[in-house]
Design goal:
Blueprint lengths: L1 H18 L2 H21 L2 H9 L3 H29 L1 H21 L3 H31 L3 H29 L3 E2 L1 E2 H21 L20 H7 L3 H12 L1 H12 L1 H8 L5 H5 L1 H17 L5 H14 L2 H5 L6 H29 L5 H7 L3 H20 L7 H6 L15 H7 L1 H10 L1 H8 L1 H4 L5 H20 L1
Antiparallel strand pairs: 1-2
Helix pairs in contact: 2-6, 2-7, 2-8, 3-4, 4-5, 4-6, 4-18, 4-19, 5-6, 5-8, 6-7, 7-8, 7-14, 11-19, 14-17, 15-17, 15-22, 15-23
Length: 476
């Protein structure tokens, strides 16, 4: 009987895939290409600035923090403009900014010009492009819950496929020369992906040609609507939720700003891109499984708390386990991904969507990430300070020892593993754990503040609806 159930679910999943509107598949490809371009820069930005432009650790971390903060800042107004410009126009605007700015960043030998393209062009492009992909997917699937669920799951999967390609591509690019060398070769490939996205967007069909009816767009955003949202309790609860999650979500920033440099300084000659790719690989494999295991859990909030707790505890292996092997980092990534991110990240998105009122999801999606503006700046500065204090660049190794790559882009294996240096560098993980553990602690302490109290009638009605949905699922 269980095998028949699995077979039935597989057949139903394949049927949903077949019924998805054509635009959804285009959006998935666009998100994958954009994921490759974004992660190619984000994973290597600080080490690239230090290696190619001789920027110190703290300054490189600050630059990364400013970039991350601007990504959030530009996402707020562009989220509002999407409702006015429409999906097609918004996608073209975002794709144009991405293609031009990423090309300039990849080819520039001038730090000021590269930073201008990074801070202005890529942030405006991402503000439009990422937001419009999510809004478009919601509009093309919102009339069918199955289409929406599968669509957003695939969106996350395709983004991680792009991330895997970027991270493994880092190691490949640093070992070869193809018109360009090293990190520049990788960034040129990212710019090419953005140009391909622009071509796809230009021919993107704005009308829905799939099996779901064309939904009505959200109401236009006005200043009055924004002011009214500021008076809503659910809005401030979501803001509070994101504030308390800053500690654990900052760990994503540490993987990008701190971990590449830390790995090359502790494990000379390491191919860090392959190690980092373990996270998106595990996410793709584990998220559907964990999602199915927790889909009937009534208290989603506590799943969020448990996931953030395991994520916060994941720095323990590299903090205490000093070895010439990269096993502590591999174990840390596995704990962070399988027991942390795969558990809490989908639930965080679920809570945000469920508590955003219908017709206001565009405004909410633009305003809710505001706390991450400050969080990104803090993460970049904190990562730079940790590296400079506990795991600095060795003077006698110059730029080659910093990244264990030659300036032509090939890995160097001349340096040897130093247990005393590894012990000193391991201290950064204690600080990261201390900052991340604040999230599950605060989420637990302020549970009653962040969760709207239900009346007896509302609680009874919600559980009746869930029971009916479970019964429907069992029957079908």
């Amino acid at each position: 009987m269980p095998s028949l159930t699995v077979k039935h679910k597989l057949a139903d999943f394949l049927l949903v895939l077949k019924q998805l509107p054509g635009q959804v598949w285009i959006l998935l490809v666009l998100h994958m290409l954009d994921g490759f371009s974004y992660f190619a820069i984000s994973t290597n930005l600080t080490i690239y600035l230090t290696t190619n432009f001789d920027v110190d650790d703290v300054t490189a971390g600050v630059y990364y923090g400013i970039w991350g903060a601007l990504l959030v800042a530009f996402g707020i107004p562009t989220g509002f403009l999407i409702d006015r410009l429409g999906i097609k126009t918004s996608m073209i605007v975002g794709a144009v900014f991405n293609a031009i700015s990423r090309t300039i960043f990849a080819l520039s030998d001038n730090l000021e010009i590269a930073l201008a393209a990074l801070f202005i062009g890529t942030t405006i492009g991402a503000g439009f492009f990422i937001s419009v992909v999510h809004v478009a997917l919601n509009r093309y699937t919102e009339n069918d819950q199955r289409h929406s669920s599968v669509g957003f799951a695939l969106l996350y999967t395709f983004m991680n496929i792009g991330a895997i390609a970027a991270m493994i591509g880092t190691d490949i690019a640093l070992d070869m020369t193809l018109f360009f060398e090293g990190y520049r070769l990788l960034f040129v490939m990212g710019a090419a992906a953005s140009i391909i996205s622009l071509v796809i967007v230009v021919v993107f069909p704005a009308k829905n040609t799939g099996g779901t009816p064309e939904p009505e767009p959200d109401e236009p955003v006005t200043l009055g609507a924004c002011c009214r949202i500021m008076m809503e309790g659910d809005f401030w609860r979501l803001i509070g939720l994101n504030v308390f999650c800053i500690g654990v979500r900052s760990m994503f920033r540490h993987w990008e700003t701190l971990l590449p440099k830390w790995l090359t300084r502790v494990y000379p000659g390491v191919h860090y891109g392959t190690l980092l790719s373990l996270n998106p690989i595990l996410i793709i494999l584990s998220t559907p499984i964990i999602g199915s295991l927790t889909q009937h859990v009534k208290y989603v909030y506590w799943i969020l708390v448990i996931g953030t707790l395991f994520s916060a505890l994941s720095p323990i292996p590299p903090w205490f386990w000093i070895t010439e092997s990269t096993a502590p980092i591999v174990l840390s990534i596995c704990i962070f991904t399988l027991l942390g991110e795969a558990v809490y990240s989908p639930k965080h998105g679920q809570i945000t969507l469920e508590r955003s009122p219908k017709g206001k999801k565009g405004i909410y999606s633009g305003l809710i990430p505001i706390p991450y503006f400050a969080g990104n700046i803090f993460s970049g500065l904190f990562s730079g300070w940790l590296l400079d204090t506990y795991c600095p660049e060795l003077d006698y190794g110059s730029e080659e020892l910093l990244s264990n790559t030659t300036l032509s882009g090939s890995f160097s294996t001349e340096a040897e593993w130093d247990p005393m240096r590894a012990y000193q560098c391991s201290k950064v993980w204690g600080w990261i754990l201390a900052s991340a553990i604040t999230s599950p602690i605060l989420l637990t302490i302020f549970y009653r503040v962040l969760n709207k109290k239900e009346t007896v009638e509302q609680s009874y009605s919600r559980f009746r609806e869930e029971a009916e949905m479970d019964e429907f699922s069992d029957e079908h």
